[in-house]
Each structure stands twice: as C-alpha cells, then as structure tokens.
Amino acid sequence: MPTYKAPTRDQKFLLHEVLELSRFSELESFQDADPEMIDAILEESAKFAEEVLTPLNRVGDEHGCIRNDDGSVTTPPGFHEAFDQLRQNGWMGLSADTKYGGQGLPGVLGLACGEMTSSANMSFGMYPGLTGGASKAISIGGSDEQKDFYLPKMYTGEWTGTMNLTESHCGTDLGMLKTKAVPQKDGTYKITGEKIFISAGEHGMSDNIIHLVLARIEGGPEGVKGISLFIVPKLKVSKDGSVGDNNGVTCGSIEHKMGIHGNSTCVMVFEDSVGELIGEAHKGLKVMFVMMNEARLGVGMQGLCQSEVSYQNAAIYANDRIQGRSLTGAKNENGPADPIIVHPDVRRMLMDSRAFNEGARAFIYWLALQEDLEKVSPDEKVRERADDYLGLMTPVIKGYITDIGFNNCVNAQQIYGGHGYIEEWGMSQFVRDARIAQIYEGANGIQALDLVGRKLARNGGRALMNISAEIDAYIKENEGNEDLKPFMDGLGDAKAKLQTGTMWLMQNGMSNPDNAGAGSVDYMHMMGIAMLTYMWARMAKTAQAAIDAGSDDPFYADKLITGKYFIARILPNMDSHLAKLQTGAEPVMALAADRF
Amino acid sequence: MPTYKAPTRDQKFLLHEVLELSRFSELESFQDADPEMIDAILEESAKFAEEVLTPLNRVGDEHGCIRNDDGSVTTPPGFHEAFDQLRQNGWMGLSADTKYGGQGLPGVLGLACGEMTSSANMSFGMYPGLTGGASKAISIGGSDEQKDFYLPKMYTGEWTGTMNLTESHCGTDLGMLKTKAVPQKDGTYKITGEKIFISAGEHGMSDNIIHLVLARIEGGPEGVKGISLFIVPKLKVSKDGSVGDNNGVTCGSIEHKMGIHGNSTCVMVFEDSVGELIGEAHKGLKVMFVMMNEARLGVGMQGLCQSEVSYQNAAIYANDRIQGRSLTGAKNENGPADPIIVHPDVRRMLMDSRAFNEGARAFIYWLALQEDLEKVSPDEKVRERADDYLGLMTPVIKGYITDIGFNNCVNAQQIYGGHGYIEEWGMSQFVRDARIAQIYEGANGIQALDLVGRKLARNGGRALMNISAEIDAYIKENEGNEDLKPFMDGLGDAKAKLQTGTMWLMQNGMSNPDNAGAGSVDYMHMMGIAMLTYMWARMAKTAQAAIDAGSDDPFYADKLITGKYFIARILPNMDSHLAKLQTGAEPVMALAADRF
User: Fold this and answer.
1) What is the domain range of residue B498?
2) Residue B372 neighbours by CB under 8 Å, 6+ apart
3) Interatomic CA distance for residues A86 and A125, integer angstroms
4) Nearest-neighbour CA in chain B from A98: distance (Å)
5) Domain count within chain B
6) Choosing from B115, B308, B374, B441, which is the catalytic residue?
7) What is the mean pLDDT of the segment spanning B175-194?
8) A4-31 burial string, b = 16+ CB within 10 Å, else e?
9) What pLDDT shows up at residue A291?
10) Chain A residues with CB inside 8 Å of B554's CB?
11) Less Cβ crowding at N or C end of chain B, within 10 Å?
C-alpha cells in the first residue's frame, strides 16, 4: 500500500526562506499569515492528508463511483466522511474572501495545502477543487446578490460546484456548443443540453451542486461570441437558501476512465433547468477564461503531486528491495544482495523526479504568490508584472509540469519492476491518475499554442522581457560567487537558449504561423526548464546562505546536490528542444493529410 | 472501437526491396520463400489479425482472465476459438524446424506475421509467443528425445508453453531463487516452489502446458551457478504422448494488472512436480539466456506493435475529428471546423510515431534476418557478424523500442483529447498494454546495463566496430548523391555522436563502473537512434531508386518525407542524451541513499 509524507520541510523552506512571505506582512491576507500560523496550518493539513486521505486513495481506485438506477452517484467508501471532516475543519475557505465567510489567508498557502490533498488523493481533491473553480467564477463575474447567496455555502462546502464546458462534439472548440438558454420573463433562463466529462458532476456528499454551465442564449451570435455562462443548481433554490426539487439536472451516465476512478466523471443532462446568467450575455467566455487560468494552475499542481508521491514510494522501495550488487562492489555485504538504490540507473530515475519536483514546487508557489500580489499589492507596477507573469506562465505550469510529472510517475513505476505493473502495489494508479492532467483543462498542445500564439506577444512581449530582465539581474547580482557558479552558468545558458528559441519564433512565426505551431510544445518545455533553472538558482542561493551561516541541517546540502543534478542532467534537454524547434513547420506538415 | 490495418505494403517493401530476401534464395529456409509465397503468407496473416484478433482486443481487456475456484483459468470470450483457428492454419510452426513438423520458413517472415498478431491483440499474441519461447529453449538445450517428444506438439499448438523464472523476492537477480529440484532414481526431478508473473501460466486453450522452470538442484552451488532448467508439464505425460493426471502444478492466483488483461499472469505453485532436466545440471541459465534473447526481440516488437496500432487509430481520428481552425486559414471551409490533423502539434505527434514505427520495423526485421543468417549462412564470417549484431542490438531493440513505443501510445491517446482517457475508445488500453513491454523480460534499465556492461565490450568490441565500418562504407558509397544528402549527413552525425559517447564510456567506465551505469540508458537510446537513422538512410535509398526508376507509387514519396522528418526531429534527441551521458556518475550518486 503506497504511503505519503507531506513535504512540509520543503514547503516551509519555500514559503519562509525562498519566497520570504514575511516581506509582505503589511499586505491584506498576509497580515495574519505569520510564520507560526503558516507552519501550524501546514502541519495540520499534512496530518489530514497523510492519515485520512492517503489510505482512501487505493479505495477510490478500486471501488470507483457507481451511478445508481435513480441517477444518483455513490462515491467510494470513506469519501463522504473525509469530505465532512475537510469542510468541518474549514479547509475549503482557507484563502477565500472573508466577506463571504472565508479565512482570507494567502492563496499560496491554500495551494500548499491543496498540494498535500492532491498528492494524497487526487480524485478526492477534485471535489473541493472543482468547487473552488466554480466559486471563483461566481466571485469574478457574479452580481453582489449572487455572491452573497452562493459563495458562503460554497466556501463552507455545504454546496459544491462544477464546471460544464465540454459537449461530445466540442471540447477545445467551444464555439460549436449546442446547449441552449431560453430567456424567461423573470430574468432567469431555461437551460437545455448535454455536457460531458463533468468532474464531480453528481454525488451525494453535499446538499446541493452548483453547476456552472456554458450555453448559447437563443438567437445569440454564432461561435464563441455567443456563449454565456450560467449558474444552474442541481436542486432548485429559494431566496432563504433552502433547497427544493430537482432542477431538471440529471447525471445520464458516468465514464469508465483510465484513472481518477474516485472522482465521478459525468454526462450531465439539463432539461429546462432554471439558470441565472453570470455577468453579461454572450460574454461568458471571459469569466470562464479567468477561472480556467486558476484551474490550470491547479492541474499543473496535480502533475507535481503524482510525481512527488510516486517518487516517495519509489525511493522507499529502492532502499528496501534487494536485487543484484553494486557495480562498484557490494554495499550490503551481509545480505544476499544490495538494495537497488545502489544502481546508478535507479538513482537517475529517482533524481530526475526529485530535482524536477522541488523545482516545480518552487515554480508553482512562486506563481501562486504572483497571483496574491496581483490582488493585494498597493504597487501598480507589481500588480501589472504579476498579472503578466500569470498570463505567460500558467500554460507552462499546466503543460510542462503535467508532461514531466507523468514521465516521472512512469519511472517510479519502473523502479518497482514487475510489481509496478500489478495494481495492488499502487504505482499503476499514480501513472493512470497523472495521465488525465495532460489532457483536461485544455490538452497540453493547446497550452503550448496559448503560450506561443497568445501569451508571448501580449503587451508587446512585456512579460517575457520582464522575466528575462529579472533573470539577468539575478545572474549579475550573484556574479563572482563561486559556490553558486554552476547555477548561474546554467541559468545563463538556459536563458540564452530560450532567447534563441524566442527569436526564431518571432522571425518565423509571422511568415508562417505553422512554424510557431510546430515548435510550440518544444518551446513550452524550454520555458519550463528555464524557469526551473531560475528557481533552482534561487533555492541554491538560499541553501548556500544557510550553510554559510553555520546551519548543519542536511536539508541544505541535499538541496544543493539536487539542484546540481538538475543543471547537469535535466537542463541539457533544452538542446534537443531548441534543435527541433528550429526545424519549423516543413517536416511536420509535408505529408498529405490523407496519407497518414 | 479501435481498428487495425496490417502494414503489408511496408512489410513487403522491407522484405523484398530493402532487405532483398531473394538474395538468399539458395539458403535453407529461404528456398521456399519466394516473393509470391511471402506475399501470400503476409496477406493471409493480415486477414486473420484484422478480422479475427482485432475485434477481440477490447474484449480481452474488458473481460480479463478469471481464476476459478478449482484453479482453472477462463480466458476472455473468443480467445479459445481464435487460438484454434491460429493453430489449425499452421501459424505456430511457420518458421519452426521441419524435422519436428514446422514449416521451416525464415524467422524474419514469422516475425512479420507475429507483428500483425501482436498489433491486433497483444494479450492474445502472448499465448503462442510464450509457447515459441518455451519450444525454443527445448530446441536449444533439449536432448533429441525431448525434442522429438515435445516440439511437434508445441509447433502445432496442441500443447502450449511458458517460462518460469521470477520468484517474489527475485526477478533480475535469479541467483537468489529458492525453487528446488530433488533428483529421483529414474533420472527425473521433483520440483517444488512458487513462481510469479507467469504469462499464459494457466488456461484451458491447449491439451497441456509445458512449463520451463528454473530451479536449484538440492545441494547445488549457490547463486546463478547452481541454477538448472527443467521441463515441467502441467499434466503428467506418457511416452506415447498421452496426458494423465495433474503433475502437482497449480495456478495459485492471477494478478490484477494495469494492462494485458487478456493474458493470464499467474502465480504458479509446483509441489513435487515431476520435471526433466534440460541440458546440463547447474547450467540452466545458459539456455535461458539464448531463449531470453529471442524473447527480448519479441518484446521489442510489442513496443513497435502498440505504437503502430495506436498511431493508425490516432491518424484516423485526427482526420475525422473537427475542432478549431488551421493557423493558416480554414482547410474545411464548408464545415463548422477543420479536422484536427491541420494542427502542426497533432502532426508532430503523428509523425513522431510514424517515423519511429517505420524505422523500428526496419531495425527489427534487419536483426531478425541476422538471426536467420546466423543459422543458415554457409559463410562463417557472415554467421559471426550476424551473431555479433544479435548480441549487441537485442538489448537496444528491447529497451529503446519499448520506451519510445510507449511514448508514442501516450501521444496517440493525447490526440483523442478527453475521449482518449475513456476506456471504451481503446486508446488507454494501448498505453496500458504497451507499458509492460518496458518492464518484463528484463526491465529496460537492465537492457541498458547489458548493453554497456557486457555486449559492447564482447570480443574486443567487434560488433560495434563492424556496424560502424558498415555505416562508414554506406555513407561513402552514397557520397555525392544529392537526393540522399540529408540522410547521409544525418547518418554521419548520428554515428559521430555515438562514437563520442562510446569513447566517453571507454575512458570513464573502467575507472568507475558507475559512470557507465549512470549513462547506460542514454547510451542505449543513442544507439537506437543511430540504428534507426541507418535504417532510414537505407530505406530512403531504396525509395529514391524506385522514384528514379519511374514509379509513381506515392508510397515512395511518403517514405522520403517520413525519413526526412526522422532526421529533422528525432535525430536531435542524440544531443541531449550525449550531454547527459558525459556528466557521469557524480550527479547521480551524490545524494546519500537514506536521504532520498
């Protein structure tokens, strides 16, 4: 049975020492988040993840969700009880607006807690996760009345939420959606249509489910310009907050999926369901995109989470399992064989994952902090920069981290040999669960296209110019520090190659957009590697400073070792990506479509 | 429901035009294999794979195998009938020795037919596949009496076979095995022990199951030097070939696996089971290794097969599914959206798979031909060279092709978007099935270690020197051919980088074997890429010659396009592998084992 130990030491290192949250203690939402409070929350969240959610992970995979004949859905044993505990302890509103009953703590802290939930039990984490997405949409686009009515119940978890975008014939291309909304005299709409792939679409764990539904108002413009966003509760709601009859919302079936069995993925059928418009008519996508950006950050986190938990288990197994002897002589002389961690190739797989995980954690937390600053900083420049970074880096976090996170799960499974292929050992589940993160919330190819086709050029490329300048300044600032030389050299190298790739895209993407499309995934990975190199340089500096100050905590020495591994053995992936990027569209597009 | 179309056009191209089997028509086993005969066999095999085995693939995944209370195992619906058809049509003995009832055709032709079986239904293909492995062991190491008795029934499929190596505490490290063999007065042995992960270990599709079992004769030497190989039939056999009572062989349980559900993976329990020694006592590994080499070639083929069939389905889907518009303007103006094959990133994933598949097919067929030549060539030099190539390239085919084949399945699934994650679409099954090929028959890390630690240096590095000289000569021979320039340049580049990697290993692997271990998987991939580049150069030459001779078959033009894609976008992976290889053991081994 796989285990999970929350990486609170690393989380504290990032929040306190690298990102130095205490710098922001004057700002709203950071005021109450003093180091002691942060540590207490992390420890409490770790306990819940380790003790309650981890043991339910295999249960969820094995039992899955069952749709009953009456359309209700039964979640895996223990999920309901765990969800009760989650909301009773106030976890769902941790970084939500205090005006609506949230605790108003920084988003980066909420994300750190979300990391533990998702590492322990990805399927379970999606129930509160989707609720967070839906409440985010209401908080962005809803009227005061809507916020007052829905948010308090969603922040406590009394009601949960979902996002209903996809239809069977359209996922990426929402302009083709067919769900229709018919205006009623009382200002509401009647929603009719069928949505697929609705995570947490139906279950019995909350008193109501608030579906956020994309639909086209009858007579509205064609394509994406005629899409509106609606609040459609599963059960009809009264002004006093009580719930009534079913609102014409039923779960038609649930999907039999490769993984995340513990989460109910539903076909949702809406038949004359009463819905409230959020924001302006025909402008639903605008709200949806803001919310999706946040969801994408969460999905990137899922990639890290499965990578982290699979790494932890593989590391334990590699220390336990004895098989063969070290190439440099027996290391376990009194035993019949050495533990397989003596083998360099086993180490390679473990270090690939570890160096990625620690870098990816820093990258995600760093961006989550930008999101906080974008909200609460009094400095307009800081807010602008943070918003730029959020735009540019969200697709990178979603695409790059879920791609590599999945690969790391595969390698962790590989370390188990034949046992890794047997379901009861749990390593297959990590692979199967991690796989969805590359697909949903915009497949990774869409993320790459969003990056090169939209985000890169926004505001005249300001975001990339800013991060480049920030990196240059950082390298300059640390020039001459011999201990940090490998990191600064690596960072300079990464930045130069990213720049070469960017230049190539600029020079060739205009003349033929397919040049940008053909290199988009390579470019996304280059930016991911470059950003992790930057994060490693920053973490190395912090760790080195702690050592220089006399700390003998082996955590810091390990951090430097792991960072040097990243520079030596992950950074070189830039070379191949750059070479491929520069071949452009021609080799990719040469074969006629009907000859495939 | 996924489909499969056997790539007979490509197979014929390889057998007739690239490998030119007709050159060997004077040799045993090639005599009957004239082009018409080969084509007829390929077409017949294709029909069986497409029409009978393909529809059973999802059935096998959904139903799996069931162990009944009496220890018998029920295979998925339709498997038994299909197996009857397979053996009635004589497929199992296609390239087996005529002396024992086989048809004596070239092994490379048998492998081409095996490709179709495994692409159509990997789980099904393992029943005849394992039988082939077991009969191979008997043909290598058995006495004349054993061969006379067992082989005819196995070549017809009346009896099937298995390989029993692994025990729960030892997979890679067979020296630790505990199954014991006690000599009996009549020259037989009583075998007692428990084996795990036994593919096709129990089922009702044949009259008997011939288990090949590794065990230690009581009092024999410790470690790998005391391991013997035994024939242990499931049912006791009489001299007249009739079968009797159970031989103390039972299936204790079957595994719940990530994939290949249609194949029964058994825990096999032997209790005083009567066994016959194969070959010499304590020298069972020698026979086992010869047989394993052949099995590894078959597993490499499985990697290609899942990559091929998943590619085919993704290509169909990409032409059918409409979503969004081409970056260069609508391509399906009258429809609501363009088929997703217009998107460069979708093409990239398809072309990555296609260029790999065609190259890998050439590589495997080329090596299978070496195996034939090693057996039947009258020229000692040819036989020696063929044997060298088999030794050197088998781990590359097993490790490199299954690694990349798996990645291609993941990409094919990705092309389906959310539907790829839903089991009924079948793309998940390709990923789950392909995954085992990286693990069994020696995990890919073991293949890499076999390559750098054993095969590379064998006979003073003769095999690598020979293939290098062959490549050099090939480049020289085609100098000045402008049409082939990209291929010859690419081949020169690949060969030079492989050489640099080899030199690095030679210079650094002796002083510290962990340097070789740390770079072993990178090196294996480099050799795989270099060999596929060589194969592409040869295929390009053949295709170009056909075009120059006036052929207007678009097959040849597509071949050149696909080959150029390989050079442009797959060959650059060499760069990253080489850079990582050259970082050596230090970054990999620096972290203390207990700090993982």
Assistant:
1) 447-585
2) B24, B29, B30, B106, B107, B108
3) 10
4) 36
5) 1
6) B441
7) 97
8) bbbbbebbbbbbebbbebeebeebebbe
9) 84
10) 595
11) N
Residue B550 resides in a domain: yes
pLDDT in tens, A544-575: 999 999 999 999 999 999 999 999 999 999 99
Q: Are strands B227-233 and B208-217 parallel, antiparallel or unpaired?
A: antiparallel
User: Between chains, do A257 and B422 touch, taking CB under 8 Å as contact?
Assistant: yes
B365 assigned to some structural domain: no
ipTM over 0.90: yes
State yes or no: is B380 an active-site residue. no
3-state secondary structure of A561: helix
B199 has which bridge partners?
Answer: B265
Residues A428, A419: Cα–Cα separation, whole Å: 9
Q: Contact B591/A345, CB-based, under 8 Å? A: no
The confidence score (pLDDT) of residue A557 equals 98
User: d(Cα A300, Cα A304) in Å, to the nearest integer?
Assistant: 7
Tell whether A524 lies on the interface with B, counting CB pairs under 8 A. Answer: no
**pLDDT digits over A98-115, tens only?**
999 999 999 999 999 999
Q: How many CB atoms lie within 10 A of CB B552?
A: 9
What number of CA atoms fall less than 13 Å from residue B370's CA on the CB side?
22
A456 located within any domain:
yes
pLDDT digits 0-9 by tens, A413-444? 999 999 999 999 999 999 999 999 999 999 99
CB pair distance less than 8 Å for A423 and B583: no
Q: How far is it, in rounded angstroms, from Cα B21 to Cα B32?
A: 11
- The string of pLDDT tens digits covering residues B66-97 is 999 999 999 999 999 999 999 999 999 999 99
The CA distances from residue A317 to A292, A322, A330, A360, B283, in Å, are 37, 9, 19, 23, 32
Task: Quote the tokens at residue A77.
Answer: 């044993």
Helix A55-63 with A122-141: angle, nearest 10 deg: 90
Q: Does A579 touch chain B (CB under 8 A)?
A: yes
- The answer to whether residue B487 sits within a structural domain is yes
Report the alpha-carbon distance of residue B578 to residue B500 in Å, rounded.
8
Phi, psi of A211 (to 5 degrees): -85, 130
- Flag whether pLDDT at B294 surpasses 90: no
3-state secondary structure (DSSP) of residue A161? strand
Nearest of A42, A230, A64, A48 to residue A134 by alpha carbon? A230
Measured on CA atoms in the order A439, A441, A445, A447, is the torsion positive or negative?
negative
Among positive and negative, which fits the CA dihedral A91, A95, A97, A98? positive
> Is the pTM value of this prediction over 0.90?
yes
Q: Which of A421, A555, A566 to mutate to test the interface with B (most CBs of B within 10 A)?
A: A421
When the pLDDT of each residue in chain B is averaged and rounded to a whole number, the result is 97
Span B92-144, pLDDT tens digits: 999 999 999 999 999 999 999 999 999 999 999 999 999 999 999 999 999 99
- Asked whether the beta carbons of A216 and A178 are under 8 A apart, the reply is yes
CA gap A481, A460 in Å, rounded: 34
Token pair, residue B47, equals 């029909």
Instruction: Report which of A456, A565, A443, A442 is spatially closest to residue A501, judged by C-alpha positions.
Output: A456
Question: What integer pLDDT is reported at residue A524 of this predicted model?
Answer: 98
Which residues numbered 550-569 in B keep a CB inside 8 Å of some CB on A?
554, 558, 561-562, 564-565, 568-569
**Distance in angstroms between the alpha carbons of the first and the last residue of chain A:** 44
Residues of chain B with Cβ-Cβ distance to A323 below 8 Å are 170-173, 176
B544 token code pair: 């170009």
- Mean pLDDT over A226-232 rounds to 97
Task: Give the model's pLDDT for residue B203.
Answer: 98
Cβ burial, residue B158 (10 Å; 0-12/13-18/19+)? middle
Task: Flag whether pLDDT at B293 surpasses 90.
Answer: no
